[in-house]
Design brief:
Layout lengths: L10 E7 L5 H12 L3 E3 H11 L9 H24 L4 E4 L7 H4 L8 E8 L2 H14 L8 H11 L14 E5 L8 H9 L1
Parallel strand pairs: 1-3, 1-4, 2-3, 4-5
Helix pairs in contact: 1-7, 2-3, 5-6
Length: 191
């Protein structure tokens, strides 16, 4: 059921977490339930690659990171536009603590910002990540196999956690379904 109640101020829902923690799936479930537009870093990265003059054979991690930075800038631009028009929006990405708070600082605090942070045991999300990489179905822009050492190095560091924002945060364990439940997550997003 789509949420049709008007909000006093627009909502900005940030769905974040390490890769392969289930944030994309959860973000889509939230968007379907509340009826707000969802924009994802991965989709923007893929569009930027597909419309750019990139060579698949020579595309490397440095280029992938650059396209990722551009994708986050697009996320911020879309959010600013929609929030400025009074519309709520959901953004999904593996936002990096230490960088992302500059993207979502005080000027977006006028929105009812909420962060949903997906997490699971490192061994599980690394296994999920490796399984996803092995399928070969993800877009080349992500360079999943080449990114694995960087991902492993992030575990347990300051780059492994929610964005430090002065906004409500809900941590969701995605080990086996959602804990808290999807209903509780939706209530948090709507609050």
């Amino acid at each position: 059921m789509i949420d049709t109640l008007p909000l006093a101020k627009p909502r900005l829902i940030l769905v974040s977490g390490m890769p392969a923690t289930g944030k994309s799936t959860l973000a889509h479930l939230i968007a379907d339930a509340v009826g707000w537009p969802l924009f994802t870093k991965d989709r923007f990265k893929e569009l930027l690659f597909d419309t750019g003059a990139y060579n698949v054979e020579t595309f490397d991690r440095a280029q992938s990171r650059m396209v990722g930075t551009q994708a986050v800038a697009l996320l911020r631009s879309v959010a600013d536009t929609l929030l400025g028009a009074g519309a709520s929006v959901i953004l999904e990405s593996n936002f990096l603590p230490g960088l992302a708070e500059d993207d979502f600082g005080p000027d977006v605090q006028t929105a009812g910002i909420r962060q949903v942070y997906c997490t699971t045991a490192p061994a599980l999300f690394l296994a999920r990540y490796k399984a996803r990489t092995a399928t070969g179905i993800r877009h080349v822009v992500h360079l999943d196999a080449a990114a694995l050492p960087e991902l492993v190095a992030r575990v347990g560091t300051d780059l492994d956690g929610p964005i430090p924002l002065a906004a409500p945060l809900l941590t969701v364990d995605t080990t086996d379904g959602y804990n808290p439940s999807l209903d509780a997550i939706l209530a948090f997003c709507r609050a």
